[in-house]
Specification:
Blueprint lengths: L1 H24 L4 H7 L4 H15 L10
């Protein structure tokens, strides 16, 4: 049960960090995640970003020059 509690706690922490990043910059990018020094790097947040996109909380996409 402790591992499940730890996983939920980690998910809440990741969500709070990602929401802070979105509040500060209005977007999420691998360079910003690196700049902020978030644990797990951008790839660690990809599942959370995908879930948030699926729920309609955010819109994922790419910027093309």
């Amino acid at each position: 049960m402790k591992s499940a509690d730890a996983a939920v706690g980690r998910a809440h922490q990741d969500l709070a960090q990602l929401e802070g990043l979105l509040d500060r910059y209005g977007l999420s990018a691998s360079d910003l995640v690196d700049k902020e020094g978030l644990a797990g790097g951008f790839s660690g947040f990809s599942p959370l970003l995908k879930a948030m996109d699926g729920m309609g909380t955010i819109i994922r996409g790419l910027f093309v020059d």
